[in-house]
Every structure is written in structure tokens, then in C-alpha cells.
Write a structure and sequence with these properties.
This protein is of the alpha/beta class. It has a domain at 172-323: Cytidine Deaminase, domain 2, CATH 3.40.140.10. It is built from 10 helices and 16 strands. Strand 11, helix 8 and strand 12 (262-265) form a beta-alpha-beta unit. Helix 7 packs parallel to helix 8.
Amino acid sequence: MRRPLAYRNGSAGAAPVVSLPADATLAAGLSPMGRRADDGPVAVATADGYLLRDGVATTMRDSVAEEVPVALTYNGVSHAVMMATPADLEAFALGFSLSEGILRHPDELHDIEVTKAPQGLVVYLTISARRFAALRERRRSLAGRTGCGLCGVDSLDQAVRPVPPLHRSRALATAAITRALADLPRWQALNRVTRSLHAAVFADADGAIVMAAEDVGRHNALDKLIGALALAKREPGEGFVVITSRCSFEMVQKAATAGVPLLVAISAPTALAVTTAQSANMTLVALARPDSMQVYSHPEFIDGAGLPPRLDATAAQDSRILTSS
């Protein structure tokens, strides 16, 4: 299915992808982040089985998340195959292209088309000649699994590519983070049904969630969100991102590449995630709950928590700062 891009030639095209809370959008198993066309893939299926409880077996029918191979093809050349939830694939493809450094700006994507294939789905992207030449130079081919974001890179340099430091001047209040965390479950429409999807949400500076993405893969959910922000012409620096998964270094890498100044994770970070956030001038908050959170890098950009002015990389690895609203 071919759609005009909202940013094509700098003019208004299709309506940007915009999320709504779960209680306002979930219908017929569709993603809350932008309705599929009638002939598009459905993100939720049903599975029959048996429920065992107190030694008694009864038949059941459950809602389960769809997971299909999604191939990304640039200018006719296949580049990546990822296992993903088959919804919001235009946003996913654009977000992946931006977070992986294939594109530096959304305007470098000229066209996009999602088509069905016998074993899955194919997203055809037409990008600028300059960016395609750079992509071919990288000679990168990856085959990803649900929990894998680095499969197939052909050098260590590609795996841990440097991220330019973010230019920041604005601090965010702890109250904004706690507000977003408290409202997060309401935006997980598909996970409410399937109990198996990751989410990534974008909140404004006041902590109001304005956009959400869900996928079986945590990297995919973040890429969908990054792509949706680009489609909506929304600057990531205007707010922050919350993810429902653990925070591995590639989540920090993707977010920093997209220009996200503050990344909040529900689960714990890895050591490399902490050092990457520190070097990228990103504030990393993890093990986040509405009543507590742990700040691992650049606490100087969080107001109202009594934090010290700075936390260096060594201290970030060796200590955890507990804050509350």
C-alpha cells in the first residue's frame, strides 16, 4: 500500500501518525498508533488452548500478538529482516532508518510502500542517492530476532558506533516523569489484550503522553515511535521517551541518534547503556516507577529532585541515586 509522505517535498501530505490512549482507540486488534487500511495486516490474532486451574482443564480462546518477518528494502536492495508486529510499518521503517544512521533527516526518504509477500511483509523505501551510496558503503546486512538489535553487523565499529553529544539547555521536572509513568498503562492498548508487547511513548515537557508505539520487539517499538515523531514533525528534544523494557546500550544509541535528551526505562540498564548515555549528554533514568526512579547520567537536567549538579561516568556505574516526586 503506497501512501504520500507527510513531509514529501516539504508540503503537507497524508495526516501524520498520531497516537491516542488505549481506551479511545483499540478496535479490531489494530494498533493505537495509526489505523491500518482495511486490507492491511492485523496486529492481534486468536489462539485456542486449555486453561488449567485447580486441577481442572477448560477450553479457552486467547488473544495473541502477531509476529511476522518484515523486510526493509532500500532502492531495490534488501537490507534487513526483522521480526515485528505488523502495524505502523511506515513509521517503523522511517524510525529504523533514522536511528540506525541510514538517514540523517526524514527528507532523505522520498517514498515508501508496504507490500505483502508469501512469508511476510516487505517495506520498499526510496532514499536519496547520497544516503543510498553511504548505505552500500557500510555493506551491512542484518537478520534480527525479537530480542536482538545488532545481529549481522560486520564489524565491532559498526556495533558500537559513536553518538554525537546532544546539545541541551532545558531541564525537565521529576513531576513530569512521574506523571508519564502513572499514565503509561492507559496507552498500552495492544499489551492490555495480549500481555506480550513492549511500548515506547513520547511525553511532552509537562509529562503528558502524546504518542505511543507497541511491538513484540523493544527496538521495534522505539523505532516506530521515532518514525512517528518524524512523520508528525515533532522534535524529540521537546520532551522525553519512556520504554517498558530493559535499557540496553542500543536503546540509548537509537534514542540519542534521534535526538532524545531523556530516556526513562521501566527495567534496569546495562553498564554500556550508562556510559553511552553519559558520553551522549543524555539523562538516563531506569527502574522507574511513579514513586521512585534511579538516575544514572546527567542529573543536572532534572529539576526538583535535590540531585547533585553532575554525575560522572565512573560514579554512574558504581552508584544508584534514588529520587522521588
